[in-house]
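Task: complex structure prediction.
Instruction: return structure tokens for all chains below.
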Amino acid sequence: MSQEHTLDPNNLPKDPAKSTLEGKHKFLGLWFFLGGETVLFSCFFATYLALKNSTAGGPTSQDLFGLELVFIMTILLLTSSLTSVYAIYHMKNYDFKKMQLWFGITALLGLAFLGFEIYEFYHYITDYGFTFRSSAFGSAFYTLVGFHGGHVVFGLSWLIALMVRNARRGITLKNASKFNTFSLYWHFIDVVWVFIFTVVYLMGMVS
Amino acid sequence: MTENTSMSKLNSYQNHKSKEEMKHQVITFALMIIFTLIAFYAVAVDMDKIFVIPLILILAIVQVGFQFYYFMHMKDKGHELVALLIFGGIWVAAVAILTFTTIIWW
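Output:
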């Protein structure tokens, strides 16, 4: 292992995630990616806004959406954002166990969110016959919300892989930046959800 | 020995600073929850459309600002390039949404 990855307990770097050049590059690389993700999601949002009234005689947003379910999902994802902030706080204090604990809670909240989303889609398909092929509105809705759900799946896989892979290693200057980039990605998923619950669900329910 | 003392002093300063930061994060979270509640409430009580839509959009934008600047630390030093990347993304996003909502209307 190279010199820069060895930790001296008397001289711990203030921010382990950005104390190596590799860590700095990972940090900037992730933000570059998030800039691209912003463009990607904005195109899905734009498509949805353009096609949300093209229901082709099928169910409309007012027929489908319910406030309770979306509210629960929103609280779950918002809370998981805070728990990952706690995890990073403990990472900066080099408390590996607490970091793992808070990331574990983050993963559970993410899984619960995903469970509700699967239930929601199942409910639309079986009770309303509202599918990806129902109308232009259906395609735009499932593409936007489903792609966000796909990001949650990817984020959960990423987090679980990180936690398992580093379970016995503790915090090093090599993996600190990996945990940090994950938490930034997870916050970004929450950012996208804030616009989804506002633009898709809330605006869809206002008559 | 003196070196150790100054080190622990420095550490306690760091700890104090990160505790302070954590407090801000929790306040940010509380505000985000309150904004969410207001947005859902405004839709649930069926207020006027002309009033509700701008209100919930503004609440969403402020909430996302909190997420970026506090949770994702964009308020900290050394985030100039980050801001350039994300605002570049937001600029393209704005143009895309403007285009799709004004050119396509059928």
